[in-house]
Each structure stands twice: as C-alpha cells, then as structure tokens.
Amino acid sequence: MATAPTLQFDGTERYYLDPELKAIVNMALAMEKPLLLTGEAGTGKTQLALEVARALSLDTEILRAKSTIKGEEACYVQDTVLRLNDARFGSGETGRVVDNFFDYIIWGPIGRAFRAGKKVVLLLDEIDKTESDVQDNLLDILEECQFTIREVNHTVKAEVRPAIFLTSNAKRELSDPFLRRCFCHHIAFPSPEQMHEILRLHFPKTSAKLMETAIAIFYELRERGFEKPPATSELINWIGALERSGQMPNAKEPQLIGILLKRAGDIAMYREGGKGRRYL
Hints:
This protein has helices at about 20-30, 45-55, 70-75, 80-90, 110-115, 130-145, 175-180, 190-200, 210-220, 230-245, 255-260, 265-270, and strands at about 35-40, 60-65, 75-80, 105, 120-125, 145-150, 155, 165-170, 185. It is α/β, with parallel strands linked by helices. The protein folds into two domains: about 20-75 and about 110-185, P-loop containing nucleotide triphosphate hydrolases (Rossmann fold, 3-Layer(aba) Sandwich), CATH 3.40.50.300; about 190-270. A hairpin with a 4-residue loop joins strand 6 (about 145-150) and strand 7. It starts with 18 loop residues before the first helix and ends in an 8-residue tail after the last helix. About 30% of the residues are buried.
C-alpha cells in the first residue's frame, strides 16, 4: 500500500476548528487512523469531514448508515436482476458479458474509495445506526483496507489508505472493539463565545446587534427542554433568513420560528409557553 504525503488541516473559512479538534484531526490524518466524531446533531460532525476533503482537494465517498445495512453492501452488490435480464434477452451493445461477474457489480462507497488509486475522504455517517456485528465487520475491512468478493474469491485492496471519518449521534452504544480501533473526539455544543466565532465565518458582515440578539434568543430556546432543541445548523439558517428578509430578530416573538424548531410538538409548546425573555 502506497504511503501518502502527510496532510494538514487548519480549518476553513466555513468551519471553526478549536485547537483540540485540530490536533486530533491532524494526528488521525498523519497516522492514518479512523476518526470517530460524536456529539449531538448539528454540531458539525459530518461537515468536518466534508471540509477536510474540500480544503485538501480530496474526493469524498459517503456511506449513510442505516439499521438494515450489511457490511458487504458498503463494499459492493451484484446486480442480479440486470444479469438475469441480459441472460434472457441479451445485453445488446452495452458491452456487458453475462459470464463476466464484474460487469454486474455496483461498487459501494468503501469499494469506490479502495479502488480510487489515490487519497480520498471516506465518511461513514451515523454509524451508530448499524448493529454491533456490522460495525465490527466494517472496522475489520477498514483496518485492513481490503475486502473479498465472495462470489469469485477476489480481494479488493486499497493502493492508498483513505482518510476515514465516522460520525455518531449516540443513538446506540458502539462496541468496544470498534471504539478501540478509532481515534475519538466528542464535539461538545459550542459555548456562546465559540458560537460567535462560528457565525463570524458564515456572516462576516452581519451587524453585531443582530448577532448578539440572535445568539441570546437561540440559547434561551435551547434551555426550554424541547424534544429537538435548535442546533448550530438551525441558527445559521435562521440568521441567513433574517438577513435575506432584512429583519432584526425579535426577542419578544422570534420571527420564522419554524427554522429554529422543527417538531410540531415543540412549536406548539413554544406557542403555549410564552414569548421568552427580552433581549432588546
């Protein structure tokens, strides 16, 4: 397996990178270890992997994990329906040959990453949705950077190890063997001071008054115990909407509340529970 040059990620104009996160991201890149990112939804776990790829000019392969997924599906599947159809009716001028198994393979994100022949970012998003045996199977594949196509006993091995990022919303406990093989970092919810830094990257020209008021309203809403409290992504979208509409945030009755709160029950609770504190 080829050794790629050491990569360095220093954040981007769209992603705030605190020193601890910067250190572990770059150590994972240098030592070619999978980096598991945990934290509540909206804290930037997925976005981090995408920004690393963008900053370092690397292609990205993404596996959106589901409870029903199997390890093999992340690597490849055989299109048996198409193969049967070609066997019965012919493949015409497609160039496919029924007897050639590889003409009917659909490569999954891991398969594409291993076959790329160059460094790519491989993101396994919301890995906690999978069963523990699937997690362990995937980590074996990622650790060895190879998998076997059982039907033809053919091994696919990466020439260059991908930069591997995994995210978890902690919906289900990850297995000990899985955790042992990863570098891990919990992205805590940003403090108001950190949120200022994050928002400055997205809205460098926004007025200080709008920013201060929006952040104050946002954190007050998060303290109310909603089923789905607003996250950073909702705040960014809300400020963008306020700027687009030319409005200042109203502490007595925040505009466009459906951008901050997404669950019907939360919106109903908000409407029944008063208008919140006054910040203006």
